Task: structure prediction
Amino acid sequence: MLNPHPTRYAELNGVLHDLVTGAQEALGDSFVGAYLQGSFALGAGDLHSDCDFLVVVRERPDAEQEAALRALHRDLPHRDGFWNRHLEGSYALADDLLSADGLDREWLYVDHGNDQMEWSTHCNQPWARWILREHGITLVGPCPADVVGAVPDEVLRDRARAGLATLTDDVLGWCPPSVAWCQRYLVVQACRSLYTVRTAQVASKRDALRWAMMHGDPRWRPLLQQVQADRDRGFDRDDHPRPGSVDEARAFAAYVAAVA
Result:
C-alpha cells in the first residue's frame, strides 16, 4: 500500500502519489519500490529543499519502459502546483544497490525541476545510499535496509575526502559565485563532507552547519551563522552575495580540505 503521508506537505504527498503510480504503470513487474532520501529522509526537508526520490527496478528499463518514464517526467514539472517542480531522483537497479561494487553505475535520472531525463551516476553515490538505508522513507515497497547493502565507513570517508580536494572548483564551476545561494552551498557542502570524514555518517545541510559551529574552529562561526541565517533567501539569480562572503567561503573550503 502506498504511504499516504510521507511528508508534512499535503501537496507534495499528492505529487509523490502521481510519481509512484506513474512509475508503476511504466515499469510493470520490474517495479520493486519507491523511496525518499536526501533532506526529507533526514528530517530536514522544507520549502527550500528539493525532494529526492529513488525508484528501485529489477532490470534496466527497456525502450518502451524508458519512453514511458520520460513521458511521465516531461509532464510532471508542467502541472499546476509547487512541488511538482522540485523533484529529483533516479531509477536504480536492484542488483546495483546490494554492495559497494555497484557504485557509480549510471541510472536513469531526472535533475531538480527538469523535464528531460538522462543516464547519470548522480544518485549512485555512497552518501545517497547511506541516507536511503539508514533513514529512507518508504513510499511503497520493501524496507530500505532490505534493498540497499551497507556502505562501508571507509568508502564514505574516502569519497568525502576526495570531494573536498576539488570542492570549490566543482561547485563554482556550475554555480556562479555572483549568486548568493552558491556561496552558501559551498560552505554547507564543506561542512557536510567534514562531518562524513569525522563520523562516517551523513548529515542534512542544517545539522552539518550546527555540528560545524559546535565542533569547528570558532574563527569560522560568523561565516556559518551567516549561511544559516540566509537560508530563507532561497535560490535567486539576482540575489548577490554579501561583500567578502565568497572569499570567506573559499577560505573555509580550503581549511576544511586541509584538516580533513
